[in-house]
Amino acid sequence: MLGEFQELSRPEGQAMRILDPDGTVLRDWRPDPDEQANPEIDRGRLRDLLLGPLEVRWGRTVNEVIPGGPDGTLVRFADGEEEAYDLVVGADGAWSRTRAAVSPVVPQYTGVSLIETSLDDVDTHHPDLARLVGDGSVAVYGVNRSVVAQRNSGGHVKVYAQFRAPVDGLTGLDQADADAVRAHFLTLFDGWAGPVLDLFLRGTAYVPRALHTMPVSHTWAHVLGVTLLGDAAHLMPPLGAGANLALLEGAELAEAIAAAPATPGALDEVVRSFETRMWPRAERWAGFTITGLSRLVSPDPAQALAVFDAVQQ
User: Fold this and answer.
1) pTM score of the predicted model
2) How far is residue 112's CA from residue 28's CA, in Å, rounded to a whole number?
3) Per-residue pLDDT at 170
C-alpha cells in the first residue's frame, strides 16, 4: 500500500507561497527534491486506497446511539432500523450523533467563517492562476481575513476566503446565487490585488462554512461500548492536523482491537487505553491549531508570517 500511496501523493505539494493583499510575494518556500515529510494527497484518493475491497454502507444516517443495552450499544438509524454492536466508534465529524452518548459538549463558533470554491483544469483554463498557486499552496493575509488556494491533483485547486464575522454573518447568503456570493466577497476583500481576487471570483460553486471547534481539553467519562475519534472527539480548525489525527487514531484503535485477546472485558480495556493515549495528544494539537487560527486570521497580518516562519524552522 505504501507504494500505491507514493504513486498518488505529491511531495511537490508541500510548496508554499505567501503574498501581501497587493500581490507582493513575501515568502516563496519550495521543498527539496527529496523532501517527503508532508506529501499531499487528495482525500478521495486516499479514502479509496485505504478502503480497498471493504464494503462500506454510505449515506445511512444515524439518529441516536444508546449504550448499555442487553445486546450491546444500540444504534438507531434514520430509516427506522436498529442494530446493536459490541463497540460503536463515533468518527462522524463535527456534528457527531455518536458524541452525545459519552459527552454533552457541543462545538462552539470560533469567530471565523469561510467560503469555499474551486477551480477545475486550472493549468488549461486559468494558466495565470496556475502560476500564482504553483505546485502547492498560496496564502494571502490581510486584516481579519485571508485567501488560501491549494492545488490538488488533476489541475484542481481549492480556494478558501476566510474572515472574522458574527456566527450569523453568512445567514441569508444564497450559496446557489454565485453572483451574490461574489459581490459579498468583493465587499470583504475590497482593494486586494486583481489576481488574488480572481482566485475566488473565477470559481463556479460556493459553499459557506462557519468554523467551529471543541474545547481544547475535551475528554469524557468512559462509557462501555462507545468511543470517539477524529472530529467527533476533538474538532479543531482545519490547519492540517485534524484529518491526520483521525487517520492515526483509527489505525491505533484497529491494531489494538486486532491484537486483543478474545476474553471478557478485553475489548473495553483496549478502548479505555486508547482514549487515555488519544486525549493528551489531541489537546496539544487542538491548542496549536486554535492559536494558529487566531494568528492566521487576525488584526495583524504579520502574525501569519510568524506562524509560517516558525513552522519552517
Assistant:
1) 0.92
2) 26
3) 83
